[in-house]
Amino acid sequence: MLLSSVVEEARIQSIKEDSDDIGNWGEYLISPRTEEEISAILKYAHEQSLSVIPVGGGTKRGFGGTEEKADILLSLADYKGVVEYSEGDMTLTVRAGTTMQELSEYLGKHQQMLPLDPMWPSHATIGGVIAANDSGAKRLRYGSARDLVIGTRLVYPDGKVLRTGGKVVKNVAGYDMNKLFIGSMGTLAVLTEITLKLRPVPKYESLVILHLPQVQNVLPFAISLLDSMIEPVSLEVLSPSTNFLLNGKEQYALAIAFEDVEKAVHYQEDWVHTHKPENAVIDHIDQEDARNWWRRFSELAPAVIPGTDIDSRIALKIGSKNLDALDLLVSCHELGEKLGVQVEAHGGLGHGIAKAYVGGGDLAKYAGFIDQLRASEKAAYVIIQHAPLAVRRELDVWGKRPPYFALLEGIKKAIDPKRILNPSRFVGGI
Amino acid sequence: MIRDVIVQGLIDLVGRDAALYRPEDLLAYECDGYTVHKRAPRAVVFPTSTEEVSKIVKYLYENEVPFIPRGAGTGLSGGAIPLSGEVILSLVKMRKLIHVDLQNRLAVVQPGFVNLKLTNSVASKGYYYAPDPSSQYACTIGGNVAENAGGAHCLKYGVTTNHILGMQLVLANGEIVEIGGAPDMPGYDLMGILTGSEGTLGIVTEITVRILKNPEGKKTVLAYFDQVEDASHAVSDIIAAGIVPAALEMMDKTAIEAVEAGNFPVGHPKGLEALLLIEVDGIAAGIDDQIDEIIEVCKHRKVTQVKVAENDRERASWWANRKTAFPAMGAISPDYLVQDGVIPRSRLPEVLEKIRQISEESGLRIANVFHAGDGNLHPLILYDARKPGETELAVKVGSAVLKVCADVGGSITGEHGVGIEKQNEMCFVFTEEELEAQLCIRDVFNPNNLLNPDKLFPKPSRCAEMRVAR
């Protein structure tokens, strides 16, 4: 290879060892430090028709894709740091390789935050989080990546460097191109910089865990809460096994977070106390304790974490109409018992996304689990967010093609006609 | 007898009652809220269902006739103005509220459903639809989607794109597709790219929107200043204090003069240089502390008077005064042109100074009304179309103001869209390659450029001319 002609040799590493069980690996690992290098690498790959997998912290290497390795594993991990921070405008431009944790530490010094709570913030980079559109329980209040990204810089497969959006919080000039790249799984372009809308760190925060011995009490309570005027940041149902892991009680629970001025937080906690079902038990933590709880929560999901053994469980993301998340979560719990697999599940009432982490089974059991879940009328989709390569090769990560697949394919062809970026990583083999 | 075979074909499809084609009937469709440019459409048709939209579009597509979807025609950038004999599909007869699901906080509407009607329909249950453009009493949700409309309250609650959950769409070839429906649908975010595409990528025929619960408490503050600079600093200080107001609006001297001469005067004192209208909402228990903090900030910035609305009526009068600022210009000027630049909030004082200079040099008065909290300026350029050359001058002044916004790292439009008005100004913010990348996406959805043709993008040759070193 003549890669050394486009990027400093020290940045190129030939990967000798075999791929682990996860796949999405590369013949060469290249870790550029400048945008020019990223552009030069892609241009070269484009000319030579080499496949490229962009990677940040690598936590989502088990998400999509059926190949053991591409020609180039393009790591953005060294392309990190804040490019521009305008405290008064509450906007930030950051390089893609910056981890979520580095970002919150930086912003925390200024009492600001990026209100996005994806899994594994210690390892996940902002570029990866945006490319995979990861989010957490607090999207109920703060929205997801599509509500927070206001601009990007990115490199197209042929090496062109382009900007989308801008640096201001309100902008309708041209198509909202930001949206195309959020959740595109790196199949269209390599994100190099992302400009984000920030919020002030809440003056006070607390977490109310409402343990509900009877699952039938969950929905009426959630409905009355959503119909009230209180404004929780999360309304996340925890399955009994998830609640046991986090809080030591093996029954359904609701994790209800409040972030506001202190008086308003206490007022809302009182509301929960007053309106809770009679036999429900409340655990209540605040400030640092609440933050620690959420950190543990963010590490429930199986992911690829350097220095640890490969997690052979599978992670599912299930999309539904808001309240239907509860039924789907209960289905996950029951399917687990029926099939004899270990399942931890949680899901947001009010945002409609549930997650299930399934372990202790074999391919047949996982297939059964997913098929039965996909058969539910309430599931708009079930996708596999993490699984070993062998599982991904047998099970359909994304489910069936949508009726408008031609549009998705058209977009891919328009931007990456040679299919060099993350081939077969995305919906319908894109 | 109708000579135009296309018009005859359309009538055969939708019936004589659902089509306009006589020149006198087309006058009302020569322009939208942007009145500088006018041209009649070939015909206007009024479909009543998605299937009918699809049939019409198929017919036009097969006959290679260009067409434009249109809502209430309140758009301010000329997106619904015909350029060369397009057929207009007016969606105003598709104005049903199809379904409301309070428990899942969503509503399904047809595109011709009026924005404010949605809030009115769910208000008795304590819910509302958040995006609130000033024209919300007339504008349609379909039009809001096309323009990605904003409003005074999007500082805290976001713009239209943040509130759209699903849509049914008729593509340029007449095919009907459903997109969205659940959060994070696998695949590229088609809803995201459709919203704000100004009717160039598809015709939205059904929209699922998020509705929100009314905040428990709401307080509104009015603050008067002797200097625009003090008001600008107060805006920054409020944000820096960690407060996220629901709205943070500003008007300058000329704007205040106009609203006081308009239909909804509230008796602002004479001679003010600037006023701020600030609203905080949320949990009632937390609001008073924030209001106290805002008042402190204003005092620190030499506010001459600051007061809290005593009741809903007073609040409503302040908002009516603000929201009718555009039409109120009619009271002090025969014509006006509204611009829609966005700047980083922190650059407000310097940008206002530059706008003042532009006004002085051109001799045209400029009133400033804006969503100060998110840096979205609405400079209103006052002119008299009867004076030769003044319309052209006003357009030129508007462009110069947008250049100032672009040069400080802002945008040429925050909520009004590009349409035909700002096509050339797109070059202020995008390179040719970046525009080309957007056109590639248009080609995926609208390969023959029949759907609202030649809008939004500059004519290729104009970019080099417009661009100044960035």
From TrEMBL, chain A:
Keywords: FAD, Flavoprotein, Oxidoreductase. Pfam families: FAD_binding_4. InterPro entries: FAD-bd_PCMH (IPR016166), FAD-bd_PCMH-like_sf (IPR036318), FAD-bd_PCMH_sub2 (IPR016169), FAD-linked_Oxase-like_C (IPR016164), Oxid_FAD_bind_N (IPR006094). Gene3D superfamilies: 3.30.465.10. SUPFAM superfamilies: FAD-binding/transporter-associated domain-like (SSF56176), FAD-linked oxidases, C-terminal domain (SSF55103). Residues 21-201 form the FAD-binding PCMH-type domain. This is Glycolate oxidase FAD binding subunit.
From TrEMBL, chain B:
PROSITE patterns: FAD_PCMH. InterPro entries: FAD-bd_oxidored_4_C (IPR004113), FAD-bd_PCMH (IPR016166), FAD-bd_PCMH-like_sf (IPR036318), FAD-bd_PCMH_sub2 (IPR016169), FAD-linked_Oxase-like_C (IPR016164), FAD-linked_OxidoTrans_Type4 (IPR051914), Oxid_FAD_bind_N (IPR006094), Vanillyl_alc_oxidase_C-sub2 (IPR016171). SUPFAM superfamilies: FAD-binding/transporter-associated domain-like, FAD-linked oxidases, C-terminal domain. Gene3D superfamilies: 3.30.465.10, 3.30.70.2740, Vanillyl-alcohol Oxidase, Chain A, domain 4. Signal peptide: none annotated. The keyword Zinc-finger does not apply. Residues 37-214 form the FAD-binding PCMH-type domain. Its EC number is 1.1.3.15. It is an enzyme of class 1 (oxidoreductase). It comes from the Bacteria. The keyword Acetylation does not apply. This is Glycolate oxidase. It comes from Ammoniphilus resinae.
